[in-house]
Amino acid sequence: MIFNFPTIKIPGLKGKSLFSLAADNKKFGVFGGVFTPNTLTILGIIMYLRLGWVVGNAGILGAIAIIIISKSISVCTALSMSSITTNIKIGAGGAYSIISKSLGLEAGGSIGIPFYISLMLSAALYIMGFTEGWLRIFPNHPAMLVTFSAWAVLLVISYISAHFAIRVQYLIMVIVGFSILSFFLTKNEPVSTAQLIGDFEDAGFWKVFAIFFPAVTGIMAGANMSGDLKNPRRAIPLGTLSSIGITMLIYIGIAFVAYRYISPEELRSNQMAIVDNSRWNSVVIAGILAATFSSALGTMVGAPRVLQALAEHKIVPFHKSFAKKTSSSEPRNAIIFTGASIALVLLAGNLNALASLITMFFLITYGMINIVTFIPQSMKIISFRPSFKIPRFVSLFGALGSVVIMFLINPVFSLVALSVIIILYIWLVKRGLKSDWGDIRGGMFLALAERASQVALRFPRHQVSWKPDLLLPVEDPRAWSGSLLFIKNIAYPSGSIFAFTVKKEKTEETEKDLHNFLEPLKDGTILVNSTILEDKSFLNVAKLVIQTLNSGALRPNTLFLTMSRERKKDSTIKTLLGHSSRNGMGTIILRIHPRLSFGMQKTVNLWLRDKSPNWHMSVLIALQLIRNWDGKLNLVSSTPDPDKKNYISGFLQHLSDQARLPDTTNFYVLTGDFMKCMKDAPPADLNIFGIAEDPDFRFMRKAPDEINSSCLFIKDSGSENALV
Predict the structure, then answer these.
(1) pTM score, whole prediction
(2) Fold assignment, 24-431
């Protein structure tokens, strides 16, 4: 039996059902879901144990500069993230969801997987930091026992529910707040040796900057909870920006107090200077423990949700198991796996070597968030209309700044991190992932193509850039199957094909036939386009297509025709020949030998006449074919006058040198009647001839039988040059 529950209309709730109302009540708002985890991740161990050292080396002005430069990257990223989340319906996974919905699952996954691993490793680092702080209070406690006790407590809290974890973080925030207040109420007198600008005795500016920068990489803690937020479009921008602003004031305030009341020598030599110079030392130590514990808790709550989002779209192995959620939306399987992985990492020991790599993955994620905002801003597409608008230079600065800082911190790890992401992207592309949403990739490449087309139109087509761009008028797609591979061998690897067919009525069968005909050509290298046009006259439509396409930047330059057995169609070919010439296109006419087809696809005979203006395109097509066939070329000519044999032989060799033909090219000069010469020609799988101004269709139809091979008849457009 199915029960339909009534909709309760409550002002401001727009008629949500009892079940959806209950689900909303289980989700988080701005303060609990974003501001609290962000703030506690940012106010971490570096604030307590490294900020004083930064001030001691850089002085107050240098320290403020480092804080502002670092924060500027996170501010730009937060602004970009705020903008993009007010334009799309963000799902679970935070940064992964934003990137995948903008650039596709492949890009989202290639960033999301290392981002998840970084969160997991970060949790292990925070637990180790908690252990170090604990051992300063209780030096006799076994380190491994402290580490795994902390791990077990964190895993239990995150396993119970995110709500319980957030409640614990409220308590931690109070402790951290009191520890900061204790330092602000320092018992010291102002020092006389305070420095506005430090001497950077322990390290240079950028080294000091690199040590401090991880302090500002906690802005994704709230976004990672995106699937558990009541209103991500409001919560992520408001919670992230407010947490960045408040923590920046706190960092500057602590830096100023350290500068004013602690000597530079003590700040540089004593990493516990902030603890030792606070009014209540025990409160600050409690704050250190709370900060490292909360940072670990934030990542242990957020990381499984990123893994669950990746699994939901089948990006990671065992996705069916990791994608499962409980009735209260807790990804328990992902939590258990993440907890077990963190335990293995803790057993491995020291993670200092991986700390830089972790930071690299965070920075790449920040950079991608800025890029996915900058791209639609630049494209000016109508679908990008966020309610939170930012200037384009903000996202550009955030993207470039992330890359620059990566290489300033560690060039080697930057290259390693980028290589990992590229490898993951290629792997995910090969898997052929499918998403339920569209993304901007197609529009992005289309916009680039349009811009490139505009630039291309400013420059005339030059002979040096010629490539075979074929226009195929297809009367019956099924009748072209024998010449399909041959067409590909002409166009491959840089050419293009535009095919069209004309029918009185467009039907599914016609579309299927045309699709099946062109499918073998679509190997990702050759650009293939096709269309079906409705009309009664094939010839009129073909003429209109030639005229229409002639005005574009990506217009075809060669009309490709096949010679029918029906003589009545010769007039159509002759008309199209003339029309293509008037519109600056060359023409290729194929006549296939009924039995031999293209033989072994090894040898091409190219027939040339002395002083003929119509040979450039024939040479270029012959070169295309022997390259793709891995074959050999014969230059063949004939003369009724034996006395001219040496002269023509010299002409062929000179042309071969000028056109840079392969060294294996052979030369044949045949004497006597032309039809007799055809029979004496060397055996070949294809013979290429020029087309006269007044085409001899009788000869063109008869030639394959006379020469015992398929034949190609070519007419230049005048824009080809085999000598460039």
Answers:
(1) 0.66
(2) Amino acid/polyamine transporter I (1.20.1740)
